[in-house]
Amino acid sequence: MIHPLILISVFIVSAVLGYFIIRTVPSLLHTPLMSGMNALSGVTIVGAIVATGVAFLAGDGLWAQLAGGLAIVLAAVNVFGGFGVTHRMLKMFDKKKK
Amino acid sequence: MSALQIIISAVLAVLVLAGISMMSKVRTAVAGNLLSAFAMLCGIVGTLFFAGVVSVWTIYVSILIGALIGSLLAARVQMIQMPQTVALFNGLGGGASALVGLLSVHGDSAFVRFTALLAVAVGMVTLVGSLIAAGKLHRILPQKPVVWKGHALCTLLFLVLTLAFVVAGTFAHGAGLTVCLVGAFVSASLFGLWFSLRVGGADMPITISLLNSLSGVAGSIAGMAIGDVFLVAVGGIVGASGLLLTQIMCRAMNRKLMSILTGGTMKPSNPTPAIEENENEELVQRIMDLEKKIKELEAMVADLEARVQALDGQLNAAPAPAPVAAPVEEAPTAASVLSKAKDVIIVPGYGMALAQAQHQVRQLADKLESRGARVRFAIHPVAGRMPGHMNVLLAEADVDYEKLYEMDAINDDFKNADAVVVIGANDVLNPAARNAVGTPIYGMPVLNVDQAPEVIVCNFDLKPGYAGVENPIYTREKGVYLELGDAKETLMRLMAGIA
To answer: How high is the pLDDT of residue B146?
Structure first.
């Protein structure tokens, strides 16, 4: 188990770094940026995979596995859908340029 | 193994950040998005190995189902539906985080219980709030703020209850923990419902940004509960980005975040004292009726004016064979103004999105450019229903992004422009924002459309915008042409009028 303090510092460091990098994105691209971020928030799929896997291997009740499976499905929709629409939007912006 | 996992997670998080920073330029943005997606894929594969769950087949089935649904939605959705799509996906991510919290709540340490409960709470707020927002954006739910009895009090109560359950659950075991879990789940959902119903249409850019931030935070907290560094890091990045966008939107609207959440949502103040209410009620009712009638009449007059102007435009267009040498002595019309203009600024707003008129807007721009005019687009930061909404719609219609100007970049050029065409925008160009103290938009930075010599307004009607403040431009004596009705049709008329 990773120490809570490490986890909290990882959160703070990445939030600060992210804040300053995202500031460079012009308002022109705010919608794709948001939808890209939205896709990234589906990263919780990682958590869903761990939780489901652990429940499965430990032979936990069916409801735990179902809940985990549902979590994976929801997160996967978020990830694939999010990156998909972002890609479509960005290509639209770019198509004029040669 | 734990050290290796941390290092790999850090590398992947840096890749994600690199991908985001590539999204600051149009040319590198596509690659940046793919890079982020690639880092995510690596993170998923890595997790399968590190958590030792490679053999669990249900995981792959679930991913496949989700991937199919997500890809189908992504391929099918129209650009016009983007705000609600983003809101919907966002909610699903929050829901997934809540479920992760639900599954890991029976941990040994207080830290795990606390973070798991918090993930449930934040995840449910995100899920419910996003679904309501998506419903409002999809126009299934009312655009106006919904205010129930004791709304502000209930919102606060649910928030406090949620926090109380989370804290109590941290120190609970067995049945007590389950009670707290259910309590946090329910009260967080209710909080999400109450706070998002209260938000009106034009405050959506702020709400979506905020929910975006929350979904990241929910993921990050869920990551703390299960001890996954990658999840914590990426969740933190998303949380920060959403917060930054929220901040930008708030500044652009001169609103305080708290006032949107807790209920100052553009509520018109009611100065009538309570004591005289009974006597005055009838009078107020009558005045309101009269006002309504006046508005109706105004709308009819405006409609007639529009028709007359349209006919004028057609008349001007019809005798085209006559040589240009004969100067037209008639009063100028919108079409004639545009025919002569050499420097035109187009101001799009949510109305353009509603009428789906972005393609007609581009045709108008093309037509003007083919006549040698310079055409630029002025984009207010909160025009539309999500950050950057107008840019996406215009990009869909093949407008070159280099013609899209941010407010600060173009605001000084309005006074030098020959003509300004407003398409479905109102509050973002209302000069009342500069001097009408006490109105909801007072202090909000607006586009200087009123400084332009000739303004053509292609709005659906002359009703005040979402903020409910009359726009003095409409009643300006000179140089204003009102082309009311569906923007698609008015634009077609305009184009027909330009010889």
So the answer is: 81
Q: What's the pLDDT score for residue B471?
A: 87
Count Cβ–Cβ pairs < 8 Å, chain A vs chain B.
393
B43 and B138 in a single domain? The answer is no
Does residue B43 sit in the same domain as residue B6?
A: yes
Whether B274 maps to a domain, the answer reads no
Domain residues for the domain of B165 are 83-266
Distance (Å) from the alpha carbon of A62 to chain B's nearest alpha carbon: 12
What pLDDT score does B172 carry?
Answer: 86
Quick one: B222 and B301 in the same domain? no
In the block, residue with structure tokens 């655009």: B143
pLDDT value of residue B190: 95
Q: Quick check: is B322 in a domain? A: no
- Based on the domain organization, do B107 and B8 belong to the same domain? no
C-beta of residue B247 within 8 angstroms of C-beta of residue B253: no
Q: Please report residues of A whose CB lies closer than 8 A to that of B239.
A: 15, 18
Measured N-to-C along each axis, helices B2-22 and B26-50 cross at an angle, to the nearest 10 degrees, of 160
The predicted structure's pLDDT at residue A26: 86
Cβ-defined contact of A71 to B100 (cutoff 8 Å): yes
Residue B273 confidence (pLDDT): 36
Q: Domain check: are B302 and B375 in the same one?
A: yes
Q: Which residues pair with B450 in a beta bridge?
A: none
Judge whether residue A28 has pLDDT over 80: yes
Residues of B within 8 A of A23 (CB-CB) are 244
Distances (CA, A) of A53 to A28, A64, A66, B118, B364: 41, 10, 11, 22, 57
Residue from A1, A3, A9, A14 to probe the interface with B (highest B Cβ count within 10 Å) = A14
Beta-carbon separation of B85 and A85 below 8 A: yes
> What's the alpha-carbon Rg for chain B, to the nearest Å?
27
For residue B427, indicate whether it is catalytic.
Answer: yes
Residue B423 β-bridge partners: B348, B458
Q: Are residues B89 and B62 in the same domain?
A: no
Report, as ranges of residue numbers, the positions in chain B whose pLDDT lies below 70: 1, 201, 260-284, 316-330, 499
Q: Does residue B100 share a domain with residue B60?
A: no
DSSP, collapsed to helix, strand or coil, labels residue B267 as coil
Counted domains in chain B: 3
pTM of the predicted protein model: 0.80
Q: Max Cα separation, chain A?
A: 57
Residues B256 and B302 in one domain: no
Q: Kindly name the residue from B427, B450, B461, B486 that is annotated as catalytic.
A: B427
The verdict on residue B17 lying in a domain is yes
* Residues of B with Cβ-Cβ distance to A90 under 8 angstroms: 23, 26, 29-30, 33
pLDDT above 90: percentage of residues in chain B? 40
